[in-house]
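Homework-ish question, so no full write-ups if that breaks the rules, but can someone show me the predicted structure for this set?
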Amino acid sequence: MAYLICPECGAHNPLEEEQCRICQASLADVEPVEEPAAPEDGEEELDLFAEEEKDLPDLLQGLKLDDVDVEYEVDPEGLPEINLNDDLGPGEESGQTPEWLDAVRKRAQVEDDSVGDLIKRVEAAKESVSGEGKEKNNDFESWIQKLRDEARDEAAGNPIAPEELSVQAVEPEMPELEPEPEIEPEEEGHSDWLTRVRKAHGVMDPEEGPNAASRSLLDWLVALEDNPPGDQESSDASDETQEIETGWEKLPHEDITRQIKVVLEPRVTPQALSLTREESDHADLLSTIITDEKADHPVARRTYKLGVQWLNMLFLLILVVGISLALFSGGTASLAQPLPSAGAIALVDLADALPEDVDLLLVFDYQPAYASEMSLVAEPVLTGLAGRIGRLYVASSAASGPLLADELLAGLGFTTTDVGYYPMASYGAFGVATGLSTGQTAVGLPEPPPAMLSRDYDAVLVLSDNFEGAQTWIEQITARSPETPVGVLATSQAAPLLQPYFESGQIVGVLSGFSDAVALGDLSDSDSDLGPRWRAYQVGVLILMGAMILGAIFAPTKRSQNKPRGGK
Amino acid sequence: MISGAVIWGVIGFLLTVMVLSYLIHDSVFFRLAAYLLIGLTAGYLVVLLVNRVLLPHLIWPMADANWSQRLWLLIPIVLGLLLLLGQIPRLATLSRVPLAYLAGLSAAVAIGGAVFGTMVPQGQAVLDAFDPYRIYAEPQLVGMRILDAGVMILGVVGTLSYFHFGQPLKKLNRTNENKRPRILQVFSRIGEVFLGITLGAVFAGVFSTALLAFIDRIAVLGELIGQFLGGL
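A: Not a homework solution, just the prediction itself:
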C-alpha cells in the first residue's frame, strides 16, 4: 500500500490527498512510497525488533515501543519526556507498515504538528548552545549533511528502504568530527551511510562494540524517564552537553531531510562515592574536629550551689576551731600514744650500728609543703647520728631540695657538702649508684664535681614525700650497690608502698609519718614538744572521719545507682 | 618596728586565706595565689638550673678542661642547641635528636632499675617466704610464717590476675572470648581485695599528710597572731 509523506511534517497521507491533512503543506511533488512488507507470522514474539532492524536508531526503536502504548509527555519546560510501557502485546496487529511508522502516524493524527513542534523545540534548544560546543555542533551538522548528500547520490540507482533511516547519537566530546576520506561506499547487510558515519567517528558498530548497550538511545530515554526534568534543570552549570541528531530520509530521490536535533542539557549523574568504614570514620572525625575548632569555647566555670558553699564553710570552721583548740589549749590529754613501726625501729638500729666518722649521703626529694612532716620524721634519726657523722653529703632531686636541706640541717648543726641537684631523679640516682659501684668516671670525661661519683658512702638516707621518688633511688642504688645500706624517711602517703622494699630487705628501714616520729620521740625521751600537734592531729582525724561518714550517709547516690560501674 | 618575720608572716597568712577561699568559690584571690606560686616556681627553677646545673656541670668544666675534654663537653652543648631549635618551626625537626636521646636514655635507666631493683628482688622475696629454713627458724612462729607466706602468694597471684588481659587465652577460648578463664576470675576477685586494702592505705596516708600540713599552717599562723597580740 502506497502513501504520501508530507515533506513538512512527515505525516503519512493517502495517495489521493493533495495537501497534508496535518500541516496543509502541498503534496503535489511528493512521490508515493510503498509500505514495506509486514513481518511474517511466527516471528519470535519476544524479539521486538526484527533482525534487519537491529541497526535502527535507538530513538526509532523507542518509538516502536511506543507503538503499542504510546504516552508522549512533552515537558512544558522544553525537553520531551517519553514514557515507555512494556506491555506490548506479542500478537498485536501491526498492519503492513513498520510499527515505528505506525507510531509516527498515530502521533501525527492526534497532534496538530507533532514533528513541527518538536523541531521548534529542538531548534530553540540548539540556539541555546554557545561557544565551542556550538561550533562543534555546526561542524557535525554540515558533515552529516555532506554524508547524506553522498548517500543520496549513491542511492540514485539503489533506493534506500525506509527502515534504513538512521540515527546517530553523538556525544559532543567526540574527538574527531571530520569525516575520513577513505570511507567505503557500500557494506552489505547494513545501512551504508550509517556505517560510514560510525566509522568516521570511530564509533563501533552496535552489534560489534562492547559498549553497544551503553550507547543505546533507548537506554538514555529510560534514564531520562527516571530522572525528572527538574533534576536536569539543576545541572545548568555543567559543561557536558549531549546532542542527539536524528536524520530522516524519506525517499531516496527526494531532497527532504528531517533532522531532529535534541540538544539536551547535561545529565548529571551523581558519582557513587564508595567509602570504607575506616574512611567514613576518618571523615566523620575530621568533620567533628573542624566543627569543634570553629565552635566557640567559653571558659568553663564551676557552678556553686549555695548550700554546698555553706557546708564547706561549716566544715572548714569546725576543722579550724577543733585543731586550734587542740593546739593552743595547753592540755596534756591524748587519745592514744602511737607505737613505732618495725621499719622505724630498724632505721634507728641502723643509726646506732653505724661506726664513728661515717660518710652519709642525704637525698632530698620532697616539696616544701611537706617540710613540716619531714622535719618531724628526720629529726629523731639525724639527732641520733649527730655524734657519728664524719661528712654529710647532700643531693637533691627536687627543685626546692637545696633550700630545704639548708633549713633542716642548719638547725641540727651539720656542715654539708653539696653533691648536686638532679632535675631527673633517675639520672642522679644512676650517677650516684654508678659512683658507688665503680668509684670512677669514664676515661676522658671531665672530672665531675667533688664527691659526686668517687665517694664510698657508708649509708644513704632518702627523704621523700612520694613513693615514686623514693622508689627511683632505691632501685638504682640497691641494683648497682646492694652492699650500701639505704634508709628511707618518708611522709605518711609514701609509706604503704615502701613496705615491700623493707620486707624484702632492700632497704634497712623506713620511718614514715607523724605517728612514727611521735613514737620515736617518746622512746628517746626527746624534749621536742610534739604533744599539742599530736592532739591536733587526732582531733583532725576524728573530724575528717565524721565528715566522711556523714558524706557517705547523706551524699546523693544518683551516680552510683544509675550509671554502671567501669568503662564502656 | 615591724620585723621581717612579721611581714613574711602576714604575707603567709594572707596567702593561706586566699588558698582556703577556694572552699567557698573559685575566686580571684585563689587564682592570684596560684599564679604567684607558678611564677615564683618558674623563676626559681631558672636560677636553680643555671647555678646548680649549667655552671658547675658545663661552663666551669669547659673553662678548666683540656681540649679532648672540651670535645666531650661539646656533645651536651650541641644537643642543647638542637633542643632550642625546636622553637623555630622550620627547624623543629632537629629537636627530635636530643628528645630521642633523652627518651631512650630515660627508658634504659628506668627499665634497668625496675627490673634489677624491683622485679627480681621482689620476686626473690616472695620465694624466700617459702624457704623452710626461714619458716622453721623460730619454732613458735611457724604457723605465723606459713600464714604470712600464704597471704603473700595469694596477694601476688590475685593482683597479677586482676591485671591479666591475656589475648592468647582469649584466642584459645574462642567460644567465650570476652570471658576470662574461671581460675583467673576467682584470683582476680581476691586481687581486688588486696588492691582495695592497698589503695585505702594510700588514701589514708594522703589524708594524714594533708592534715599534718594543715595543722602546721594553723600552728604557724597561731604563733604569728600570738606574737602580734603579745607585741601590742
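Now go work out the reasoning yourself. Hint: The CA atoms of residues 104 and 132 of chain A lie 34 Å apart.
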